[in-house]
Give the backbone structure.
Amino acid sequence: MTQYLAVKNGLKLGEFSSVAVGAGDTFIAAMQQDKIQAGMTTEPTITRLLKTGEAKILVDLRSNADTQAALGGPYPATSLYMATDWVNGHKDETQKLVNAIVKTLHFINTHTAGEIADQMPKEYLVNDRDGYVKALEGGKGMYTKDGIMPENGPETVLAVLSGFSKNLKGKTIDLSKTYTTEFAKAAM
């Protein structure tokens, strides 16, 4: 995603380098120590950096509307990725994993951000429950209610990946073979 956004906004591959710095405290330390000048991370790390003024948002992907504007469509980033061969050989295990995710999505969509925060391990709130709740309130809409792939989601992902990946440029990909809704539908 970072590579795509850099290329989309005028940088060429090779004019920047990617460094894995993790999230949370390690991401914040990398910014503070000037090991990275820009980065992509998730909540609650974003809120922590905004609160201290140590960072600003260049491209906001924390809501459906912002993601649509930046990428041209929905981006189903929170997904369960598994090799097709493993799924085909472990349908019961796969169903149990998907059941847990769909149950979690239902919980997210039927509870307030405060109620969700109450269920999180205290260390995840990083001593800022209010910041966590505020960030979650803003981002809850990014989660589907049922785990079903959003319409046009695969097309957006392909467009993003094709924007910088030499392995995908000019290739035709049957997107219907890249995901299944079989297990999410069964979980409902």
Q: What stands out?
A: DSSP finds ten helices and no strands in the chain.
